């Protein structure tokens, strides 16, 4: 007690005041830094929900665009039922980390939001401000919301039917406690550590005021801790004095500049960068010194390794009690990856818009071509029935073939555009049934040339595919085989299991192909006849086949022993039970791996 009294008498009041001010400044500085980190975490959470909602709509658009309620169930497109479609919400959670929900009306019909007992919250209701925004005002909702008793960062979008009526909603969000758990742990630890260190520092100043060396060591330890704390932050952090000289930075800032702290401290922007860039930085610094508040602006920065990064600068002036600026602090947030994602998203959206525009154009073109062709189909046979001149009869026959060619070309081109615009949803499909569906439509054409088709595919063999596209695939292959098979010839369709794939073959005994034709046979508008004037074919059938097989992530190729010895078309599909891996949408525009030199 006597020691404490003696120490108290010898310690000057200015020293105690200085100690208190230093402790408070340290705590406030760390508090401001944590506030900045917390605000950025909240912004990141909101951006995550925006990106998750974009991904959710993208997932929905792949399955259709027409939302409607039928027999008490929400339907997407022609047949996809959203009630219980938890695989969609789970996919959003796997890819973005956000919880997701599909509402029919205000009721959850598919979700991965869990109740207290661990089960999915199917059947629970939407309440609160999100309900008012979606169902009363018909607008989207972004912000915080209480879901089953837990606060979330959320994004809600209304779901409308074709009439524009709101019939449901889509939700993505993350629990605030889960998203901010790491920050909260850091905040508690840093707050506890700084509080303890501040108390220890004050106690040491009071008790050991005569020992200046020990007090200096305590301050040094605190500054080292603060430096280590900043060094763990991946974003470049720096501070400058009132003259614009660097007086503090973390390791991320040193990496950005390419200089050590010893080389940086005490230097200004004019010592580090080219005059024009240095002048720009100095003007921005002076603006924040002259005016209160936080300065935020976006710019491109060149790192020491020569790489150019997009970044957002956050700067604030450090002022004394009289409001006089003593310097500034700044944080550089690297947003290069975010920019790249946004640019890629815009690129994908532009590609989709282009595909939709092409498809719309082809639909209109198909309609506009069929309109004048319809009366020609009716009139030409009537005229031919009244003509007895063989020469005139031949000209009318050529006209009929040209009309057929125009109609066929328009239809084939529309098929090619439609199957190229988006990848189908792959489900278990009976391969034998797809063949039989194609054979039933081509029976007259096959019978006309006396061609016999043998379907040797097992009735119980299933593949992952689109029944509609597989039937179109076999129609084009069989139509091609029927056209070039020998009169009274034979076409054999078979399938063989190979590892995780099914290898399908369509073999005819017709004219065959040489090596040059094999390398071009799947090209658009290629015709195998040397004259290329066959009015009964459009040259798009095998190109359509190639795109369908690409949509199924398989391979397509042709083999032939030579001219007059027949041709075999091969392609591969995935077996049921072997889900194909996810691929980038751009890969759909690349060619599949054939076994011969074809494109």
Question: Can you characterise this structure?
Answer:
The protein has 599 residues and is of the alpha+beta class. The protein is 49% helix and 22% strand. It has 17 helices and 20 strands. Strands 14, 15, 16, 17, 18, 19 and 20 form a 7-stranded mixed β-sheet that branches. A 5-stranded antiparallel β-sheet has the order 5-4-8-7-6, with helices on both faces. Strand 7 (150-160) and strand 8 form a beta hairpin. Helix 12 packs antiparallel against helix 13. The N and C termini lie far apart (94 Å).
What's the number of extended β-strand segments?
20
Number of helices: 17
Overall mean pLDDT? 79
Class computed from helices, strands and strand pairing: alpha+beta
Radius of gyration: 36 Å
The percentage helix is: 40-55%
Beta content comes to 15-25%
Main sheet properties: 7 strands, mixed
Distance between the first and last residues' Cα: 94 Å
Structural shape: elongated
Residue stretches low in confidence (pLDDT < 50, at least 5 long) are 1-10, 580-599
Structural descriptors:
20 strands; alpha+beta; disordered N terminus; 7-stranded mixed sheet; disordered C terminus; 17 helices; 5-stranded antiparallel sheet; 599 residues
Topology:
Blueprint: H1 2-10, H2 13-61, E1 67-70, E2 73-76, E3 80-81, H3 86-96, E4 99-104, E5 107-111, H4 129-136, E6 141-147, E7 150-160, E8 166-175, H5 176-179, H6 181-207, H7 212-231, E9 237-241, E10 246-249, H8 251-257, H9 261-264, H10 269-272, H11 275-290, E11 294-302, E12 308-319, E13 325-334, H12 336-385, H13 390-421, E14 427-430, H14 431-448, E15 452-455, E16 462-465, H15 467-484, E17 490-498, E18 501-508, H16 515-518, H17 541-551, E19 556-559, E20 568-575
Parallel strand pairs: 15-17
Antiparallel strand pairs: 1-2, 2-3, 4-5, 4-8, 6-7, 7-8, 9-10, 9-13, 11-12, 12-13, 14-16, 16-20, 17-18, 18-20, 19-20
Helix pairs in contact: 2-3, 2-6, 6-7, 12-13, 13-17, 14-15, 15-17
């Amino acid at each position: 007690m006597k020691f404490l009294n003696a120490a108290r008498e010898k310690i000057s009041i200015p020293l105690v005041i200085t100690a208190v001010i230093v402790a408070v400044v340290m705590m406030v500085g760390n508090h401001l830094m944590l506030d900045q980190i917390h605000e950025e975490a909240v912004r990141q959470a909101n951006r995550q929900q925006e990106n998750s909602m974009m991904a959710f709509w993208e997932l929905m658009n792949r399955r259709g665009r027409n939302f409607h309620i039928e027999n008490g169930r929400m339907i997407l497109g022609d047949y996809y039922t959203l009630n219980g479609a938890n695989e969609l919400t789970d996919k959003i959670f796997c890819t973005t980390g956000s919880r997701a929900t599909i509402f029919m009306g205000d009721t959850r019909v598919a979700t991965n939001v869990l109740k207290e007992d661990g089960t999915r919250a199917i059947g629970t209701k939407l309440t609160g401000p999100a309900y008012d925004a979606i169902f009363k005002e018909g607008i989207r909702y972004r912000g915080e919301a209480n879901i089953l008793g837990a606060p979330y960062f959320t994004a809600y979008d209304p779901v409308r039917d074709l009439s524009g009526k709101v019939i449901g909603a889509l939700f993505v969000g993350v629990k605030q406690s889960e998203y901010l758990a790491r920050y909260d742990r850091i905040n508690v630890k840093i707050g506890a550590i700084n509080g303890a260190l501040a108390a220890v520092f004050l106690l040491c100043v009071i008790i050991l005021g005569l020992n200046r060396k020990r007090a200096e060591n305590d301050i040094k330890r605190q500054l080292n801790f603060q430096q280590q704390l900043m060094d763990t932050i991946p974003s470049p952090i720096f501070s400058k004095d009132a003259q614009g000289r660097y007086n503090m930075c973390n390791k991320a800032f040193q990496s950005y500049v390419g200089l050590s702290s010893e080389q940086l401290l005490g230097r200004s922007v004019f010592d580090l960068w080219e005059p024009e860039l240095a002048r720009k930085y100095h003007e921005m610094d002076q603006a924040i010194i002259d005016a209160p508040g936080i300065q935020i602006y976006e710019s491109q920065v060149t790192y020491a390794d020569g790489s150019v990064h997009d970044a957002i600068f956050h700067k604030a002036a450090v002022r004394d009690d009289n409001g006089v600026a003593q310097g500034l602090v700044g944080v550089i947030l690297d947003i290069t990856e975010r920019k790249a994602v946004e640019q890629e998203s815009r690129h994908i959206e532009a590609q989709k818009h282009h595909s939709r525009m092409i498809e719309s154009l082809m639909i209109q073109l198909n309609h506009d071509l069929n309109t004048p062709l319809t009366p020609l189909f009716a009139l030409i046979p009537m005229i031919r029935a009244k003509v007895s001149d063989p020469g005139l009869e031949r000209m009318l026959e050529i006209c009929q073939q040209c009309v057929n060619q125009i109609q066929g070309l328009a239809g084939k081109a529309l098929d090619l555009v439609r199957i190229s615009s988006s990848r189908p949803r792959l489900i278990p499909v009976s391969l034998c049934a797809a063949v039989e569906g194609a054979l039933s439509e081509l029976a007259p054409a096959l019978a006309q040339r006396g061609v016999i088709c043998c379907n040797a595919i097992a009735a119980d063999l299933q593949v992952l595919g689109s029944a509609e596209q597989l039937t179109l695939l076999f129609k084009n292959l069989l139509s091609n085989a029927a056209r070039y098979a020998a009169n009274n010839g034979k076409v054999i369709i078979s399938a063989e299991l190979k590892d995780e794939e099914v290898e399908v073959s369509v073999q005819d005994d017709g004219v065959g192909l040489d090596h040059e034709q094999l390398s071009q046979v799947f090209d658009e508008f290629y015709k195998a006849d040397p004259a290329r004037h066959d009015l009964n074919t459009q040259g798009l059938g095998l190109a359509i086949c190639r795109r369908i097989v690409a949509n199924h992530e398989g391979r397509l190729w042709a083999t032939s022993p030579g001219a007059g010895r027949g041709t075999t078309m091969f392609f591969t599909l995935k077996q049921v039970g072997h889900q194909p891996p996810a691929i980038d949408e751009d890969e759909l525009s690349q060619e599949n791996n054939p076994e011969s030199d074809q494109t």
